[in-house]
Amino acid sequence: MWDFVRKPLADTTGATAIEYGLLIGVIAMTMFFGMSAFVNSLFTMYNTIDANITKAHK
């Protein structure tokens, strides 16, 4: 009677694909947020250099 519940819970086919999918998702999010922080730092550095060059020409 409970076979319809036990069978899907015991089935492990496709588990590796799901784990790889989750791992890729975590890596992609880490890369996205890491690149976002890097771009913000680069933008701040560019603005600082630009302000210093502008100040030096005055």
From TrEMBL:
InterPro entries in alphabetical order? Flp_Fap
What transmembrane ranges does the database entry give? 20-43
Q: Which UniProt keywords apply?
A: Membrane, Transmembrane, Transmembrane helix
One Pfam match, by short name?
A: Flp_Fap
The lineage's top-level taxon is: Bacteria
Protein name, entry field: Flp family type IVb pilin
Species source reads Novosphingobium sediminis
Its lineage opens with:
Bacteria, Pseudomonadati, Pseudomonadota, Alphaproteobacteria, Sphingomonadales
